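Narrative summary of target 7.
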Amino acid sequence: HIHLNGDCDANGNRFRSGQSYFPGTVSEMVHDYSDSEGKVFWAFCFVGAVMIFFSWYPTMLRNVYIGEQSNLCGISWISMRQYVPAPGMMILASIQTVPGLELSPTDRFAMALHMAGAGMLFIGYTCCEAHALRWVPFATCCRRRSRCEAGKSAFARKVCVAGIFLSYLLFAVAQLVIVHARPEERDEWGHLFGHKGRQLLDTASWRVKRFKVMSYLCEVMCGLFIIASHLSIWYHSEERHYDLPEILHRLQDPPTELAARRASEMLEGPLWLPRSQAPSAGAPGPER
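Modeled conformation, tokenized:
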């Protein structure tokens, strides 16, 4: 748990480093789901992931649909786009992270699942979107291009993909620096007298704190680019301009109307036949 008392711990004692606390990731900031920020983070992430999953937009929007012939290890790319990023976001939001590096085996397993969900969301979405755009390194492997208009639409989506990739790359570099820093320069977590759970005992030095700020900002930018990518797909989709009927018609008297439709088809031919092939009203009917 984190008590925001500036450069003091939960008991009011100043940290030895003299630095205030700053989270290295968004997940570290909201790791306690009993707090308000943890509840809000989980609610918005999980609801957003559920809405993306049940929209089935990879198969419903022409500017991202690429067919089922293009596949990876026998799995179509549209199936991967449907079943990888959104479930990864659900895993990321549902399995909370554990701050610090001195973790128990169960905590390490939970962290591995949390990081797997993050990879499914960020890396999975980046690869699927780059493949749909036939962008580097997928310029020649996709047989069918999605109906993504040239010009502003494709440019905006490529900018978002590049932003996701670069932000996640810088995030990974910053995390490697933090993990391999000297123990006395990192945050120290443990048990504090008079408080339950893991408490912040000492904050990281300014040298490590700079990379924590960089890591946090890069992760935030990565998430913002994913949101911008989805908004760009929606804004430039053809389906957004469809005018749906205001009234859904229904049969008032199903037996009577169905019988009348069958009689009409016998006289005029099925609706799907061309007019030239439909029998005329005076043509003889079938022999009984």
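Residues 206-235 form the longest helix (30 residues).
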